[in-house]
Amino acid sequence: MSRRAVILFAAMAVIWGIPYLLIRVAVEEVSPPVLVFARTSVGAAVLLPLALVRVNLGPTWRHWRWVVAFAAAEIAGPWVLLGWAEQHVTSSLAGLLVAGVPLVGTAIAFLSGRDRHISGPALAGLLLGLAGVAAIAGTDLNAENAAAVGAIGLVVVGYAVGPWILAHKLVGVPSLGVMAPSLTLSALLYLPIAVIQWPATTPSPQALASIVILGLVCTALAFVLFAELIAAVGPVRATVITYINPAVAATLGVAILGEPFTVAMALGFVLVIAGSVLATRRPRAHADPEPRPEPAAA
Predict the structure, then answer these.
(1) Alpha helix (H) ranges present in the chain?
(2) Are 34 and 215 in contact (CB under 8 A)?
(3) DSSP class of 217
(4) Alpha carbon distance 292, 198 (integer Å)
(5) DSSP 3-state assignment of 269?
(6) How far is 252 from 273, CA to CA, in rounded Å?
(7) Structure pTM?
(8) pLDDT digits (tens, 9 = 90+) for 217-252
(9) How many Å apart are CA 240 and CA 92, to the nearest integer?
C-alpha cells in the first residue's frame, strides 16, 4: 500500500475500534434506534451542509437507488442490529464476529466476477487475522444469545455489501454525495421510532459523550476517511480494518476498564497485524481490477 493508504488504514483501525466501547456505554441508557438516530443526526448535521456547498450532487440523484441501498446496508440496518446485539453479548464478541467482514467481502467480490484474483497469501492473511481476533476475544466465545449472534452475522453481511456498492455502483459519485444523504436518510428513518422511545430522563454525561463522539468522529469523519481508503486499496482490502478494531477495543478495555492483558491477547494482536499485511498486499502479477470511486471533494 502507499504511504497515504497506510495512514488512512491506521486512522480507520483506531476510529472504528472505539465504537464497540461507546455503543456498549450508550445502549445501557438509550434504545438502539434512539442511538442510531442520534448518531446519524450528528453526522448528517456535519456532512450535509458540506455536501450541499462543496460537491455536485447531480451524480447522487442519478444513482439515488444505490445510495439508498448503501444507506440500508452500511448504516440503517447494521447499526441498530449491532446496538441491540451489544445489549446481550460483550463488545469483544461483537468485534470478533464483525471481523468476518473481509471474508464475506472476498466472497462477494469473487461471486460478482469483479475479482477473480484472490491470491493464496491474501486468503491466508484473512484467515490469520481472524485467528488473531479469536485469540484476543477468546474468553467471550460462550455467548448464550443465539439471536444476538445472528444479528451480528447480518451486520457482517451489511458491512461487506456497503463497500462493494460504493466501489462498483457509485463510481464517480463524490464521497460526500454518498455519505451525507445516507446519514440523512437513516436519521429520517429512525426519527419516528426515536420519538416514541426517547428516554424519560436525560442520559448520563458518559452516555451523552459517547453519542457525540460516535456522531462526530466515528461517523462524520470516519465515513469520509473510509471512502478515501476504499478509493486507495479497494473494498475488500479496506474492510481488513475490522481485524484491527477488536485489538483497539481490547486495549481500551485494559486502559479504561482495568481488564487484564493476557498472553493470548498479545499473541492475537501480532496475528492480526501479520494477517492484515498479507491480506492487503496487492499481487504483483496483475493490476487490481477493482474500480475506484471518486475521492471526496475538498
Answers:
(1) 3-15, 19-26, 32-54, 58-62, 64-71, 77-85, 91-98, 101-111, 120-136, 146-168, 175-197, 205-215, 222-233, 235-238, 241-257, 263-280
(2) no
(3) I
(4) 40
(5) helix
(6) 17
(7) 0.81
(8) 999 998 888 878 887 887 767 767 767 777 787 777
(9) 17
190-196 own/partner pairs: CB under 8 Å, 24+ apart: 190/33, 190/34, 190/36, 190/37, 190/40, 190/76, 190/80, 191/37, 193/33, 193/34, 193/37, 194/33, 194/34, 194/37, 194/38
Grid cell 450535509 is found at 48
**Cell 457525540 maps to which residue?**
212
CB 16 within 8 A of CB 218: yes
Size (the chain), residues = 298
Contact 85, 19 (CB under 8 A): no
CA nearest neighbour of 263 among 172, 135, 159? 135
